[in-house]
Amino acid sequence: IVLAFLGWISIIISTAMPQWKMTSYARDNIVTAQALYEGLWMSCAMQSMGQIQCKVYDSLLKLESSLQATRALMVAAILLGLVALFVAVTGMKCMKCMEDDQVKKMRMAVFGGVIFLIAGLAALVATSWYGNRVARAFYDPFTPVNTR
C-alpha cells in the first residue's frame, strides 16, 4: 500500500509539472539562449539568466487532441488512484471496517490493488503517448535542427 500510495503521489506531481517537453534555443550567443518547457497545463520559458515565465494554456479548444487525451488519462489515473486508496485501506487487516467477514475484506484489498493497477496503466498509456509524440516531432525532418 505504501508503494501504491507513493506511485499515486508521483502521478499527481508529474501531471502538474511543466517539463513534459523541453525545447532549447541556443543561437550564436549563449547569453540569448532560452529553454521552453511544455506541460499538460502550462508552458514556461527560461532565459539563460535564470528567469522563468510560465503561462497557462488559454483555451481547451485550441489544444491538440493528443494533449487533451493525455490530460484526461492523467486525471483519470489520479481519480482512480484516490478510489483505489480508499478501497485498499478498507480491505487492510488493521482496519475495523468489515472485520466480521474476512473473505470480503480480502476481496476489498485485492479490488483496491486492481484499481491501482488500472490507474497505473492509464498513466503509463498517457506518458507513452505523449513521449511518442515528442519523439516523432524530434525526428521529423521538417523540424529545424536548432530547435530540437
UniProtKB/TrEMBL annotation:
Pfam families: PMP22_Claudin
Signal peptide segment: 1-18
Subcellular localization, as worded in the UniProt entry: Cell junction, Tight junction; Cell membrane
Keyword Membrane in record: yes
One annotated Gene Ontology cellular component of this protein: bicellular tight junction
Domain of life: Eukaryota
InterPro entries hit by this protein: Claudin, Claudin1, Claudin_CS, PMP22/EMP/MP20/Claudin
Key words, A-Z: Cell junction, Cell membrane, Membrane, Signal, Tight junction, Transmembrane, Transmembrane helix
Membrane topology per record: Multi-pass membrane protein
One MF term in the entry's GO annotations: structural molecule activity
PROSITE patterns linked to this entry: CLAUDIN (PS01346)
Major subcellular location class: other
Sequence intervals crossing the membrane: 69-89, 109-130
Protein family per UniProt: Belongs to the claudin family.
Job description of the protein: Claudins function as major constituents of the tight junction complexes that regulate the permeability of epithelia.
Protein's UniProt name: Claudin
Organism whose genome encodes this protein: Fregetta grallaria (White-bellied storm-petrel)
